[in-house]
Design goal:
CATH superfamily of the largest domain: YVTN repeat-like/Quinoprotein amine dehydrogenase
Distance between the termini: 48 Å
Strand order of the largest sheet: 1-31-38-37-34-35
Number of domains: 2
Radius of gyration: 22 Å
Strand content: over 45%
CATH topology of the largest domain: Methylamine Dehydrogenase, Chain H
Structural class: mainly beta
Largest sheet: 6 strands, mixed
Length: 415
């Protein structure tokens, strides 16, 4: 992937109270590795707002969230390390040296082990999470990339990109079991929630590519499914009926019907989609867009893009980046200010009076479905900000404003 320099993007904090308060509670979060900014963006999936940015090692790539949501593990390709993030504090609590060029990563279902693909070492590092040390190194085939684990934690499956194979590892003994030859350039790999089938992407440019479907018990190829250009990885829905495949070079997302192992539909998305995860309730899919510096939210009901969330430079998020359980938000104290807004109801221009000597203020406007419909900033030192809302449908909206040391949340009615 060509390294590209991107402009810095900012995010705003949505505060739903009108009191001086401590915002402490629970949230479903996404953890996005920003490879060119050496950090992770934490997205609150209730508001689709970045609530934290966590510095990691160099070129963070792979990501896996523990099943209890308490830890996030990130591979740092250029440091040959794994960062361990505590989700309660959104801080890195440990950094673990692994093999050369770590990419894929997966946490065992019980959280006791983490498995890391070392692409240039042709190996897997097995991390003991109680000590945050490598307890074993297992040889595989050339350029291991994607990795997944069976729901019962007994087997680990590795996609070997240059080896053209999937390696099966006995997770109980940390030993190599067998290789399955599946053809050129296997890259992303996922297993169904019931542990019966494995799906593997083949990352080949400038051609339609297959997804290889394996029987996880018999270790045999069942079928192949043709998708788009250079499928990177795939995520399977919690009920096991759908899979979502970002096609890197034709800017699409293939949606698979796993009951029939066919392509259900193809959705046009942004430039260079890479990472993908499904919300634990199955209602939304989140896809990283490398050349957009963003994550797209897609409704699984309509298969339409419902929101765009700005993150860091060149977001990758190779792996499962959404916690399966809600995690505790860090406590934040913030002064809440009431803003004078007129007219309200409004049909054309809305004028917002700002605190005196105000620095630049970030504004976001949300509809009742919590989708952001407008995003803008005031000028430094301005006493007011004016926004045209005549292009919006009539209805109720929430205006979120964030100053240097204050925030505000106001109801707006558009006629």
């Amino acid at each position: 992937m060509t390294n590209i320099t991107f402009k810095k993007l900012t995010s705003t904090l949505f505060c739903s109270t009108l009191l001086l308060t401590s915002l402490s509670g629970f949230a479903q979060n996404a953890y996005i590795t920003n490879s060119m900014r050496d950090d992770v963006s934490v997205i609150n999936l209730t508001t689709n707002i970045v609530i934290a940015e966590i510095a990691t090692g160099k070129n963070p790539w792979g990501v896996s969230v523990s099943s209890d949501g308490s830890k996030v593990y990130v591979t740092n390709v250029d440091d040959n390390t794994v960062s361990v993030i505590n989700t309660a504090s959104n801080t890195v609590e440990a950094t673990i040296a692994v093999g050369n060029s770590p990419h894929g990563i997966v946490v065992s279902p019980n959280g006791s082990k983490v498995y890391v693909t070392n692409s240039n070492d042709v190996s897997i590092s097995v991390i003991n999470t109680s000590t945050n040390t490598v307890e074993a190194t297992i040889g595989v085939e050339d350029m291991p990339q994607g990795i997944t684990i069976s729901p019962d934690g007994s087997k680990v499956f590795v996609a070997n990109y240059a080896g053209g194979s999937v390696t099966i590892i006995d997770a109980t003994t940390n030993t190599w079991q067998k290789n399955i030859d599946i053809g050129f350039a296997p890259h992303g790999i996922s297993i169904t929630p019931d542990g019966s089938k494995i799906y593997v992407t083949h990352l080949i440019e400038d051609t339609d590519n297959p997804i290889t479907v394996l029987d996880a018990e018999a270790d045999t190829i069942l079928t192949t499914i043709t998708v788009g250009d250079a499928p990177y990885i795939l995520a399977i829905s919690p009920d096991g009926t759908r899979a979502y495949v970002p096609n890197t070079y034709d800017y699409t997302l293939s949606i698979l019907d796993l009951t029939a192992d066919t392509v259900l539909t193809t959705v046009d998305v942004g430039r260079v989609p890479l990472g993908v995860s499904v919300h634990p309730d199955g209602t939304k899919v989140y896809v990283t867009m490398v050349l957009e510096d963003a994550v797209f939210e897609i409704s699984t009901l309509t298969n339409e893009i419902t929101d765009t969330i700005s993150v860091g430079y060149e977001p990758i998020a190779f792996g499962n980046f959404i916690s399966s359980k809600s995690t505790i938000l860090s406590t934040i104290e913030i002064e809440t200010t009431h803003l004078d807004i007129f007219p309200n109801p409004v049909s054309n221009q809305l004028t917002i009076t700002l605190p005196s000597a105000s620095k630049a203020v970030s504004f976001s406007l949300y509809n009742v479905a919590r989708k952001k419909v407008k995003d803008w900033k005031s000028k430094v030192g301005a006493n007011s900000s004016i926004i045209n809302v005549s292009d919006l449908p009539a209805g109720v909206y929430v205006l979120s404003a964030k100053g240097n040391d204050w925030s505000s949340s106001e109801k707006i009615v558009v006629e």
